[in-house]
Each structure stands twice: as structure tokens, then as C-alpha cells.
Amino acid sequence: MASPIIYPTGTTIYNPDRCWNGYTVFIARELGAALVDMNGTTVHLWKGLQGFPNKLLPGGHVMGHLGVRNPKYGYMDQTDVAQVDWDGNIVWKFDQYEFIEDPGTEGMWMARAHHDYQREGSPVGYYAPDLDPLVDKGNTLILSHKNLINPDISEKMLVDDVILEVNWEGDIVWEWVCSDHFNEFEFSEVAKNTMYRNPNLVIGDGEVGDWMHINSISTLGPNRWYEAGDSRFHPDNIIWDGRQANIIAITDKKSGKIVWQIGPDYDKTPELRKLGWIIGQHHAHMIPKGLPGEGNILVFDNGGFAGYGAPNPGSPVGHNNAIRDHSRVLEFNPTTLKVVWQYTFAEAGHLNKMGRYNFYSPLISAAQRLPNGNTLITEGSNGRLIEVTADHELVWEYISPYFGLDGKSNHVYRAYRAPYDWVPQLDKPEEKEVSRIDIQKFRVPGNEYQEERKITEVETVTEFSPLPQLCVVDSED
Known about the structure:
The chain is mostly beta strands and 477 residues long. It contains three helices and 31 strands. Strand 2 and strand 3 form a beta hairpin.
């Protein structure tokens, strides 16, 4: 993806009358958790609280991570999951999953958390009517890692995905290990062969295989499918997505078995072929009850590269064999797989295929359904947050001004919008419209746009003569 070196940051478009107004929380790279208003003002910063992701709770509390394991020994491992109050005081923390003794360090307990967690009371971690996350009690789902060898998958060491449920006291009351269910995932023999040789090898205590790479977990919560008698969608069941395998699945909480799944093969049925290949996806979840689209699956379908299968020109050995150079946000019915709503480069107004790069985040990213039917989209690789209406009008755009220590990347893993009253410490901010700038006329000082320009008209050809007859000459002439 090509992008300019100099561009505006902060809120660049804002239509207050068309937005669902509130505060937005996200990670400000190495600084901490940032809370911004609709006009892009950072109204609070929890310095040092990392976000993989950050989530706002009622009362001005926020969740995230306080420590990161040395990446030489632990791939994407966070030492803990923590909740802090408005003043940064630790209210709750979990770090008691595995005692780690990395070379050159004192041993310590770690959660080995990564990518997602959910506090009881809120199925998906964002605002929905009557589904508020608990603040001073309740259980927490945590996505963690465990190193192991499963010879059905590969002879190599795996960094496997584990879902934990821990209570307020920090006791682990439920555990689900992804690799235990390998034979339920319907990989083809070709895919298994590719995976056995390269289970998505990454650096972490040598080379380990991040074979599934789950990046989101959430409970289904109350929903119309279960109320209609479909037990696959029990409110306690957990939906998750495996980015590397192109799988979205639902785990039965009671048995641990997979009861609903799409991927890894999207050519398998007519319904899947019509849905289209979901590649390298993030943040697959069921829209909570009380929000427009409730019961449908919402997912940021990244494109990019993922999967296991037969070699092809873009993947000579079959690893990351599914490739697509643009992203989609999809909302679809989980029983029919019919797309209900989507946002792609076309809905963004880039009808020419050359414009597909204008909506593309090959990594990270997310989507949140808002109470007025709008959707908050994190186009994470570019640090771009947008709110779009059901008819695809762009009504808010924010570019993160927070760059990493290298000064080059402002990517945002995932952002969430919350109502103003979740932050009683602040007065409701003034909402000022930000009109779209005509970038054809926008100039930095000293390079202003000139209305009066010298224009040279070029005579156009209206009649065409046939081209002269081409002749072939001998190569020696």
C-alpha cells in the first residue's frame, strides 16, 4: 500500500447530526490508552496501559495490559489483563496462568494473554442496551497462549490458543485448548500437509507455530436464534475467529465442541461461494441484542494473506495461499450465510478497481455496530477510524496522531465507542462539525492554491485517421 508521508491527523470529517456521538478508546501506541471525543481531542490518557485491546467500562474505568513479555521468548504474550479506574489505580488484575522463567530474567507469573478478553455482562465488550460489563465483580474470558506439541498438526512446537474463564478472585474456572479440536476443523489433506511442514512459524522461544492465530473471542449473549430453538447459539457459547486458518467458529461452552463453523474452505457450498472468501479476518462477533442487526455476524474481513493449501504463484509452498488486496466489513446471517450489509472500496465510492487500496488493512482492525445503525470501523493498519451510516455515508473520520517510537506507524489494533455517561468524570463536550476539506485546494503554507492560473488549452482531436500499415522487417536490416 502506498501512502503519503505528510497528511492531517485527528478528526478530519464530522457530521454531529448523523453520528452516534460518544467517546472513543484505543491504544495510543507506546503511550497508553487514549480516550478522544468526537472532535478528536484527547480527553484522557491512561499512561502505560497498553491495549490489545483497550476497553472502556462504565464509571470511567478501562481495561488493557500492563506488561509485555520479551518477544524473543513469548510471541505476543501480555503479562496480565488489568482493569484500572479513572486515576489509574489497579482495580483488578489477572496474571496467574503460567509461571515463566525466561533466560536472563527472574521467574514471574503471566497471563500470556493476547488479542482479546471479555468481562461478564457484555457479550462483545462494547455498548448495547441493558448489556453493560460488570465493574466490581464477575468473570472474565481471556484469550491466552500455551506452548505444546500436537503431532496431528505438526512435529514442531506450537504456540496454541487457549480460552480461559477466570473469576473476580483470579481462579481459572474453565479452559478450552484449540488444538484439542484440530480434527473438527475440516482441513483438507493438502492443507494438513502444508500445515505440518509450516504451522505458521513465528519467533518466540525459537521458532513456534502460531497455527490458528485466534484474534477475537466473545460470548453470543441473548439472541433470536437460540430463542427460536437453535441450540448452537446458546448465549454462553463462544464465537471466535482464527486469522491464519480463515476460520470463524462457535464453541459449545458445555462440551467444548465446535457447533458452527465457516472456513477454511469457502468453495465448499453454494452459500459459502456467494459469501466469498474471508481471509485473515479480525473481530468476528454476533451483534448483541438491542442493536440494529442483532443476531447477525459482523466481521472485518481483512484480505491480505492467510491460509494453508495447494501452492500457487503467490504462495509457492502453500503457506498463506489465500491472497486478496482489499478489505471488506461484512454483516451476514449465520443460518443462511446471506450478506445483510457490507462496506468495501465500492461502498466507499471507489468504483474503479484501482481504488480498492483505499479501503485495505491487511492486519488488525475491527467493526462495532452502533445504536443508531451506524458502524464504527477500525481500518487499523493506517490508524484510521471511521463511522459510516447504513447507507454507507462517511460521517466521521479520525486519523490517529499517535506514532510508535519509530515515528512511522500509527496503527490502531481496535477502537470502541462508548456513551458519554460512561465517563461521569467529564462534562459532555461541545460537538463541532468538521466539514470535508477539498484536498484539491488544500495546501501547506507557502504552497497555496491559486485560483488564477495560467491555463494552456490543448487542441483535441475529433477525427481519427487510420494508422499507417505496419510492416515487418528482417531482424538483420
